[in-house]
């Protein structure tokens, strides 16, 4: 990330840019070599723009670090952050594995041509239908999350012609420093088997009784938007301790240790994440040290970056609309999207930064509350954004919207979901078309007529 600085009376004003973002001689924001004003004119707004070059560089950095350290590994894109056929194809091009959490994500991946043997199927309440799809498509691994699921896996495995690899998801009792809604590794969690009360041991026992199943090892995910390596190290030590006890007590050796994802990104100046490589290097050091101390064979390390691959690769472009000043309180600026395409600020107070994409070289020194157009008082994207004096039709860029924006988008107020475009090296291509009003009613049943005889 770089800082773009503009002069203003009495000082300087700065706007942070991400990845391949620059400002051209027109004062327009460029993303991946494309003028954002041209993109908005071509595809309309709201528009989510992904710098796929940044995705590629992040993916390569994760993979290269494992390779340089001589550690066998899989890097799986945690696609709940943003799922569509185009991003799955990009992940496949970069040699990533894929983490899916539903039948819909699995179906999308298969339709995109993603190799099924590199797909890991997650989820805390997989249906038998979803698990059957996983067996039929030949996914590479199922991450078992609960005892009901183990029973279903057993029934399906006995009727299948292929052996299924399984990881056991556990909660190691590690509480990462993150928001309560996105913390998943503590003991009080809906995910996984408790590592410390015997649940994980019982899960291994039940899975070991199914000849058609091969247990690879343990999986954990301790949370999201994590800025330090300490929690990952504690989780690794805890899981390796359990793995070592299984070796001593059962003669079972885990071949895979999956430490999940959750690597933080920079949304605002207050965020201070590490580079992707630093998270990986710290994990490797801890795993090597802990396994050496226990004389335990070094397992293959799997990780699942999601937000850190797509988060700051995405920028949402909006058109500025109405304004309202509440004297002494705030100045509202409404845009043509909002919580329907980015619910994170309303859901758990997520913070973002913004700029005027068509006037980047002007002082960003006026304070606005950027509000959406949904009929909710809480539909605010940014509480205090610094922008130039905004005019109707200006192009507002909200940065780092690539993770859990479109993925959590809705048709609230019957608003169509935005288009998504990929840009790289001065070229652009449509990834997801903009929904139309016709799309909104496509699944509606035809209106019924109500008469004396009832509905017909």
Helix and strand topology:
Elements (H helix, E strand, L loop, with lengths): L1 E7 L2 E7 L3 E3 L5 E3 L2 E2 H8 L3 E5 H17 L4 E6 L6 H9 L3 E4 L2 H9 L7 E3 L6 H10 L3 E4 L2 H12 L5 E8 L21 E2 L4 H10 L4 E7 L10 H21 L5 E3 L17 H18 L6 E4 L3 H4 L3 E13 L3 E6 L8 H5 L5 E3 L9 E6 L8 E8 L7 E5 L19 E6 L2 E6 L4 H5 L8 E2 L2 E2 L1
Helix pairs in contact: 2-9, 5-6, 8-9
Plain-language structure description:
This protein has 2 domains: 168 residues, Lyase, Ornithine Decarboxylase, Chain A, domain 1 (Beta Barrel); 237 residues, Alpha-Beta Barrel (TIM Barrel), CATH 3.20.20.10. It is of the alpha/beta class. The longest helix is centred in the middle third of the chain and has 21 residues. The chain is built from 12 helices and 25 strands. It starts with a strand and ends with a strand. The protein is 28% helix and 27% strand. Helix 8 packs parallel to helix 9.
Quick one: biggest sheet? 9 strands, mixed
Name of the CATH homologous superfamily of the largest domain = Alanine racemase
Radius of gyration: 24 Å
CATH topology value of the largest domain: TIM Barrel
Helix % is 25-40%
| Low-pLDDT sequence parts | 7-12, 178-185
Distance between the termini: 60 Å
Portion of residues in beta strands equals: 25-35%
Number of strands: 25
- Counting structural domains, the number is 2
Give me the CATH architecture of the largest domain, please.
Alpha-Beta Barrel
Structural class: alpha/beta
The number of helical segments is 12
User: Which of globular, elongated, flat, extended, rod-shaped describes the shape?
Assistant: globular
